TrEMBL record:
Transmembrane segments: none annotated. It holds the Pfam family tRNA-synt_His. Gene3D superfamilies: Anticodon-binding domain, Bira Bifunctional Protein, Domain 2. Its EC number is 6.1.1.21. Signal peptide: none annotated. One of its GO terms (molecular function) is histidine-tRNA ligase activity. HAMAP family: His_tRNA_synth. PANTHER family: HISTIDINE--TRNA LIGASE, MITOCHONDRIAL-RELATED (PTHR43707:SF1), HISTIDYL-TRNA SYNTHETASE (PTHR43707). GO terms for biological process: histidyl-tRNA aminoacylation. It comes from Pelagibaculum spongiae. Keywords: Aminoacyl-tRNA synthetase, ATP-binding, Cytoplasm, Ligase, Nucleotide-binding, Protein biosynthesis. It comes from the Bacteria. L-histidine binds at residues 83-85, 113, 127, 131, 259, 263-264. This is Histidine--tRNA ligase.
Amino acid sequence: MSKTLSAIRGMNDLLPEQTVVWRHFESVIRNLLDSHGYQEVRMPVVEKTELFKRSIGEVTDIVEKEMYTFEDRNGESLTLRPEGTAGCVRAALQHGLIHNQTQRLWYAGQMYRYERPQKGRYRQFHQVGVEAFGIADASLDAELILMTANLWKKLGLTPFVRLEINSLGDAEERKLYREKLIAYFEASLELLDEDSKRRLHSNPLRILDSKNPEMQVLIEAAPRLMDHLGEETKAHFEKVCKSLDAAGVEYQVNTRLVRGLDYYNRTVFEWVTDHLGAQGTVCGGGRYDGLVEQLGGKPTCGAGFAMGVERLVALLQDLELLTNLDDNPHAYLMRLGEQAEIHGLALANRLRDAVPGLRLLTDCQGGAFKKQFKRADKSGAQVALVVGEDEISSGQVQLKPLRTTQDQQALDETALIQQLKQLIA
Ligand code: HAM
């Protein structure tokens, strides 16, 4: 026997037991995005490597060590997308969606990062992301955050997640702050770890994000970008905060929140949970007013967020918030004898047409009543529908409840349709 193959480490199969939860999550979020007027886009999973280098930033974990990059047969360097913002901006630019227009877009799909797999951290994972273009006002930042808050409410997650926000200022402000920060860390060079020393001149803000316990005292005392914001940026951030206050959404200002991607300015935010262990960030995003121009477009502001579907699904499951989900068939059709087998499939289709939403499974294996009955029971269906030779000639179907002690009934097709409608209501 030849050896069986298994999936790549960190890349998971989703089996029916999980897809039922995923489909629920996806339908809740789709309705929510529709209700806010956001429109779906779908981008390729593979893009030119340069796109990610130019947008996410050369000195980030993602670009430095996590990208799945390979050469195409024609020698071009391609990368499996590690996130969706870059591709969404590329697509919007390529198709002329953002010049002098506003757009509110969303996408969902697989992303790829070569990270060390553990609970909540995978090499193939799924995001639902939102990107909005052409709106400079802080109301957009607040809308994005409130939209996520609404989603948690719909999913019952509100008590289990908390919001952290910060302002990264604008490019000029960050440049001045950056110099201050470099000078501050240079004065204590011996206290920096290797990673931080390497980043000191290329990406010093990321040092603030370090989890190294030995550097925490130094980081705590570092100058804060929040204290170096200009009037306009400060007012922008205050408006975001006031809009959240007015909507009753609680938040914590975390002046060390810098995010792991370089394109952000002004508002950044993360939703974090304490119920998932180390990988507790379920959603992150912010404003990126320079990115469109950086990727060759006319200056156009943008903002968005993305959430990790695996983490949110795990949270819903761990907290047992989804108890009544099942995608078992409602009814299981058993056919006894050749005439019933031939006419049964057409009957099943008529029933599906007449009862929208009905999940009807037809037994296609045949055999004795007992065997089919066992399979009907195992399918999880509420009722078995039985057609034999007698039923074919009389035009009736036997409806046998499988989960209650109610009696079996012989019904004509019209009465059966009524019963099935009641069953799925
Ligand atoms: P990000 O923070 O890199 O942001 O990822 C967003 C979310 O994706 C994270 O909060 C987390 O829930 C999930 N995630 C990230 N990496 C993994 C992984 N290895 N395994 C499982 N889940 C993961 C972005 O990707 C930005 N593009 C968000 C954005 C959109 N900003 C503006 N627009």
